[in-house]
Amino acid sequence: MRTQRVQPLPALARYTIAALIVAGSLLSACSLTRASELRLADEIGPTAIPGRPMPVPAKQSSPSVPSPTPRATAKAATSAPTGKPPATPSPARRLSSDTDTSAAALSTTLEALRSAGRRVTRTADRPDLRLRSTAEPGALLMYERILAPVDRFSTLLEGISLAELHEVWTGSGTSPGFTTIYPSQDALDDLTAILGAPGAAVKPQPADQVSDAVWGDPMSIGIVPFERLNVRLRALRLDGLSVVDNRLDQTRWPLAARAWLSAQTPAGKDALARLSSHKPVSNRDPAKLTVLINTGVTAIARFSAAAIERSGDNAYVARVVGPELAAADITTINNEIPFMPGCKLNTDPENIIFCSDPAYVEALKLSGATLVGLTGNHMNDFGTAVFSDTLD
Questions:
Q1: How far is it, in rounded angstroms, from Cα 345 to Cα 305?
Q2: Which of 63, 226, 234, 387 stands the most exposed, by the fewest C-beta atoms within 10 Å?
Q3: 144, 281 in Cβ contact below 8 A?
Q4: Backbone angles phi, psi at 100, to 5 degrees
């Protein structure tokens, strides 16, 4: 192989090449330094470098990220100023109750006062209000429980007196009508407050067994709260009053547990005034009472018709009993014979063909008949045409 000898460069060329090499090295060093500065700026943000102005990063086209919404600083809830000081609760009214007032009466009274916006505390000393079982001037009736003496529905006993009931109850006397009293167990406390301590003749019964006890003992009566009257029991009159009469002034009914509220101080009068529209709680509400009377067969003929003709009063036969029948809310009468113009009076006991003068219908009107039955077997004694006239 032939070797070619390389000729050495001139001195000027060598110096030029060396200068270019140095210049390239310096440029590379400057590029590396600039790159390092930019990386450092990206990592820690803009930072002043001694001897150099703070670099400004170039704008980038990356998507913008919305700034987070500053979280609201929670503030303690404060009420808006009203300009008025908070209301001071009125002082509690002091209430006393007599020992013979029932728990139900006390509970009813407390609830009524609270509903009227009055706080109440129980006390025995210096009360503002007093709850008693007897009335006094200005007192308000708060509670009432009507109790009814009863007997078997088939009894012939119509009524008793309060004095008679009291004697048998306490054992201080007797009655020709009954010797034993079966009161409902849940009415015993009220009855004791009204009649006194019971004697040996008093035999309390569970509420649902009073009817059986009375039916099993023909010389007994029972006593039940008004709402427990049923078809097996007949309510007895008491001092001439009937508890099932819709004309009854029940404030006069003697066998009742009642409680009246009275004011003892000015604060008590204020509380009582707030109850002026209060209706007493009672187990007998006349508005919910419906009285129904069903009569037996009616035939205004023979001697009834003769009595009308003698009196000259077409309603004569109803003058006594009619107002009692008319007092009922519903009165039904079963009329057995037709009303026929020209009907002749016939009192022959052998006569079995009947009719009534149309004028006698006044007796039905006086009796307050709500419904008149026309299903009697004598309605066609004078033919269907007369029957049709009676319907008209």
A1: 7
A2: 63
A3: yes
A4: -95, 5
**The pair of three-digit structure tokens given for residue 222, joined into one six-digit string:** 């029972």
Q: Which of 173, 193, 174, 191 is nearest to 182 (CA)?
A: 191
Q: For the residues 300-327, what does the mean pLDDT come to?
A: 95
Q: Look at strands 292-298 and 330-335 and give their pairing.
A: parallel
From the number of C-beta atoms within 10 Å of its C-beta (0-12, 13-18, 19+), residue 363 rates as buried
pLDDT band at 99 (very low <50, low <70, confident <90, very high): confident
Helices (H), 263-360: 266-273, 302-311, 322-326
| pLDDT single digits (tens) 222-254 | 999 999 999 999 999 999 999 999 999 999 999
DSSP 284: -
Query: Is residue 48 predicted with pLDDT exceeding 80?
Result: no
Q: Is 331 exposed, middle or buried (0-12, 13-18, 19+ CB in 10 A)?
A: buried
- Give all strands (DSSP E) within the chain, no chain letters: 93-97, 120-122, 129-132, 140-152, 159-160, 180-183, 220-225, 233-235, 237-238, 256-263, 281-282, 292-298, 330-335, 371-373
Calpha distance 150→236 (Å, rounded): 5
Res 369 pLDDT > 60: yes
CA–CA distance, 68 with 88 (Å, rounded to integer): 48
